[in-house]
Design a protein that fits this description.
Layout (H helix, E strand, L loop, with lengths): L1 H15 L7 E6 L5 E9 L3 E5 L2 H6 L8 E5 L5 E6 L2 H35 L11 H22 L2 E5 L4 H14 L1 H4 L1
Antiparallel strand pairs: 1-2, 1-5, 2-3, 3-4, 5-6
């Protein structure tokens, strides 16, 4: 009974909060290679809007008091879109994918080493674990994490506008799919 009340209460509370699944950070470069960074808020007919105050955007995405910047296509040379959290997710997946098999390999090697030790001593010494499993796991965790970090950091989209309305119109639909207003 108590469990059903808690579950229904959490569902009601969760429905009152807006959940934003994918938030993209946009780095906009102009012709002089100056950079403006912010969350891609919206895409209009000839401009994009960035929210530069990310602390507020995560709590209330439709807040009117946010600091937003509208950038015309004339001022955009290149846009880099980066999905927030991609590097952390890549590191976690890579670390687990590297650490778990490495630990298992290390544990198997430890068992094999114990068997060799038992045979060499003709059964007079009771073999003890050497602890090589955690060492293998640490190495696998580190290498897998670094590979996952590199894979997560490369999940960037580069969009070249070159101050052209035609190029902007070609890329506009793709940009809209990554905008915050589109994802709410």
């Amino acid at each position: 009974m108590t469990l059903s009340v808690l579950i229904s209460t959490s569902d009601i509370l969760a429905q009152s909060q807006q959940k934003i699944n994918k938030v993209y950070t946009a780095k906009v470069y102009d012709s002089n290679k100056n950079k403006i960074s912010g969350i891609l808020y919206s895409v209009e007919d000839s401009s994009i809007t960035l929210c530069v105050d990310s602390a507020f955007i995560k709590n209330n995405p439709l807040n009117d008091s946010l600091e937003i910047i509208t950038i015309s296509f004339r001022d955009i040379r290149k846009i880099k879109l980066i999905r927030n959290g991609a590097m952390e997710k890549g590191f976690l997946i890579g670390a687990l994918a590297g650490g778990i098999p490495s630990f298992m390999l290390g544990a198997a090697a430890d068992k094999a080493f114990q068997g060799v030790e038992y045979i060499v001593t003709l059964g007079t010494v009771d073999p003890k674990p050497s602890g090589i499993g955690p060492v293998f796991a640490l190495v696998g965790f580190t290498i897998g994490g670094l590979i996952g970090l590199a894979a997560g950091s490369s999940s960037r989209n580069q969009i070249f506008i070159y101050n052209s309305l035609d190029r902007f119109n070609i890329e506009k639909d793709g940009l809209k799919q990554h905008s915050l207003i589109h994802n709410i």
